[in-house]
Amino acid sequence: MILAFALAALATTAVIAPxxxxxxxxNTGYPIAAVFLxxxxxxxxxASGVLAGGTVAVDWAWMPSIGVDFRLHLDGVSLLFASxxxxxxxxxxxxxxxxxxxxxxxxxxxALLTLFATSMLxxxxxxxxxxxxxxxxxxxxxxxxxxxxxxxxxxxxATRAFVVTAAGGLSLLAAVILMSLAAGTTNISVIMDDPSxxxxxxxxxxxxxxxxxxxxxxxxxxxxxxxxxxxxxAITPVSAYLHAATLVKGGIYLLMRFSPLFAESALWTxxxxxxxxxxxxxxxxxxxxxxxxxxxxxYSTVSQLGFLIALVGVGTPxxxxxxxxHTFAHALFKATLFMLVGIIDREAGSRDVRELGGLRRVxxxxxxxxxxxxxxMAGIPPFIGFVSKEEAFDSxxxxxxxxxxxxxxxxxxVAAAGLTFAYGFRIFYGAFAGPTxxxxxxxxxxxxxxxxAIPAGLGLLFGLSVGILSPLINRTVKDTMLxxxxxxxxxxxxxxxxxxxxxxxxLTGLLLFFLREPVDRLLYRHQFPATGAKVFDAAYGGALRLxxxxxxxxxxxxxxxxxxWPLGALLVIGVTGVALWPDVAPPALxxxxxxxxxxxxxxxxxxxxxxxxxxxxxxxVLLGVVGFVVGIWFLIAGAPDLAITQLLVEILTVVVAVLVxxxxxxxxxxxxxxxxxxxxxxxxxxxxxxxxxTFLLTGRRERSPAAGYLMSEAEExxxxxxxxxxxxxxxxxxxxxGEVTVLAIAGLGLIALLRGTRTPETAGRDxxxxxxxxxxxxMVIFQVASRLLLPGIAAVSAYLLLRGHYMPGGGFIAALxxxxxxxxxxxxxxxxxxxRLQAIPLIQSGLALAVLVGALGLLEGxxxxxxxxxxxxxxxxxxxxxxxVFDLGIFLVVLGMTVAAIERLSRGVAEASHxxxxxxxxxxxxxxxx
Length: 930
Fold this sequence. Notes:
4 strands; about 5% strand; DUF4040 domain-containing protein; MnhB
């Protein structure tokens, strides 16, 4: 339960962060940092057991019908990455109060940063493939919001980051689907215990490529690297957390977690090693030419991530140990450097090394900390960066393949490390060496420096006593490769090949540093003709233009243009289906009764009259008649739920349509005869195709096994006798929740689109001032009648809601009845009475209630699993179910949608009615005064 509590604690903190920020301002970072430390302490309390070979697990049923559970797992790999998420996260949060402006609101920032930490922690704890994908996508979304939170200038970089990483998420989803099909389970533990399930599958190479693509997009590897430097538009705390210790390490974690499946694959090894090492050299070379310190660190991160991916690609236990150690080391020195660059930017007003210089004299502590972190990054003893680089060189020398493979890999790594040494020294020299250019600066507060000082000091401490980390690194490798490894980490291994390579690295770095001017000229002379960002922008712009071209035919204001395309698609599909249809079996049961022909006759007459109608209002009335007749037909056919829904929808449709029509001319405009013939042809053809499809698909098969099961077992399983309702709120509750969510989004969209239709000159105007001859202002009878009808309609609505589980009714139907009540009350008053029901709170509370009921189902074993009970009142036994509360949530969302439509559209009507005289008459008839 500790793992679940950790996630719940962070999620709760994210929810309350805006409230804290309103009271504490930028200092909100301190209590949230304390929460991170407490959660980290709880995780650390399990470390001894994990390092001894034990595990901490949570296993709750989530979707048991398909074998998907909410599984959390803490092993060595998870412990390593969780320590980075929580440890570095607490430091960043303690850094934020001094970095952020005091006069701005930061609730959104703190909430998103904590939500991101929750997502990352869930990612490294996830032990189910689908849960892994869920948390992976949560990191993508929350990071997008964090990157894009700095204003308009961050919009495009945030979009680039989101599109690239979201594409990687789709790749991971495809890999997870194929992997679960091959293994027959989504349980990662089961898959790792028997890797042959996936390895021997014919889809194994495809799965490997999909996992690699997902990791490359998240960890900014060529050719997906460009989003990371662009993301530096985010504020420094975001860059320090996401792009040093957490988000970009998500790809490393993914590759390490699935390494046992593909480590023996030549495709896996060759791809990771080649792309990783090329990215390491490329990123380091581009970093060396940067003048902006933050951009330099961004390309440095790209390079270091390539280094890590190459180590994972080697696939040996020693290489994974080196990757784990360097992951830890990189988080320490890169988080320090990002925070210190933020301090320099705050104090000096610039990050450009050409505008800085000599800061060591006015900011000696900052200079010292920067030097410590830069030396660790450069791989200078006795820092932890030196130890991790030596372990990496040693592992690359033993890379699988021909003898020259290891030397080539190690040589490439030395080149990348030499470039790293050079730009590490450039950071310090550019900002702190030379003459002092800004003598008015001073050292920042200790509270500003402390969060950066801690990881800088740890980089030195762990370098001197790196053996402390041996148990964690060994357990990480053991839990990754399921192979014992006895890596004894130490600062000094004696004279060895790796020591020679380290010396070559340092000499190469010094040479590049002292020859920085000719090196700069060389780097600027040879540049790629196009950057990744430009290629992305061109592709993204092309996709937008393609979408614009695709949607152009339906962009006309006329309804016919919108309807013609889906009807045309229906025609093509229908004709193709009829042409390819096999022999038609005779109906299993009679599908037509004599009374059906009577209904068809009435429908035909109403539709013909509708087609001939000249008045818009007449057309709407006839369309309502068609709907009512169809509803009666459903009732005759024995579908009362469907009939009631149809009738209520027709009532509200007519109401809404009339509200819209009041803003249009009363009669249809004249159109060309050719257009009439074309639309008539499309309508007749669509009707024939739909009729043929209905004829071919009705009554020609027996009842399906699922239908038979529901008819016989629904009451036993759910306690409800209304099978339709039990399907909606019990058996297929997740589908219903998704549909209600879409409806809620549509309702909020309607409110946003129609916001502002009320004009200032008509707001608050009193109808009592209108003359008695104005029909729009004299609706006393309607107003009185609405008061009499309201209690009865409300009672019917409540009755339908309560009985829905047992007889025709339910939340949707009850909400439609309540919507009729809203229309009856609102329309006579227009703008003069503010709506008593507010659409947005209704929608929000309904959706929240539905989700809450679903979450409570976890107590019974799975999300949305109904909880049942019985209440005895005298001789009566009442069956109670959480499905009723879920249905109440549906009721509130649908009612909110209805309130939004009626209230927003009635505003437009009321405005029009408040313009008496010729202007009103001309508007109704679509004319003007000229």
